[in-house]
Design goal:
Elements lengths: L1 H5 L1 E6 L2 E6 L3 E7 L2 E6 L5 E3 L3 H7 L5 E5 L2 E4 L3 E5 L4 E4 L4 E3 L5 H8 L5 E2 L1
């Protein structure tokens, strides 16, 4: 029961709480004091929290900070190009990887099914 509750994320949005499963979150993008959360099957939602608060709220085992503006679900990544410093998500979206985080990202993703080019 506790695992099922932990896998859901409760977000305060427009004075209402929205519940989404963490595995449905593809990535989060910082927008100043706000964060845009992109989902697999839902339209993006903007929340009134910065990306650091969202990162602390989500389980760290499935999400990785690849840039100061992006937090990505590792299950949504299909390939990483370490020379062009980009990763490709399953939906085709390309996101740039920060130079300082490249080694950490590759070491985390080397144990997964992600294609590293």
């Amino acid at each position: 029961m506790k695992e099922r509750i932990k896998s859901k994320t409760y977000l305060l949005l427009r004075r209402a709480f929205f519940m989404r499963h963490q595995q449905n979150i593809t990535y989060c993008e910082a927008d100043g004091a706000y964060t845009i959360i992109y989902f697999d099957k839902f339209k993006p939602e903007t929340v009134a929290y910065n990306i650091k608060v969202i990162e602390e709220h989500l389980s760290s085992s499935n999400f990785i900070r690849i840039h100061k503006s992006y937090l990505v679900n590792t299950n949504a990544i299909c390939e990483v190009c370490k020379y062009c410093k980009k990763l490709v998500l399953r939906n085709g979206q390309e996101i740039t990887i920060a130079r300082q985080r490249k080694k950490q990202i590759i070491s985390v993703l080397s144990n997964t099914e992600v294609l590293i080019l």
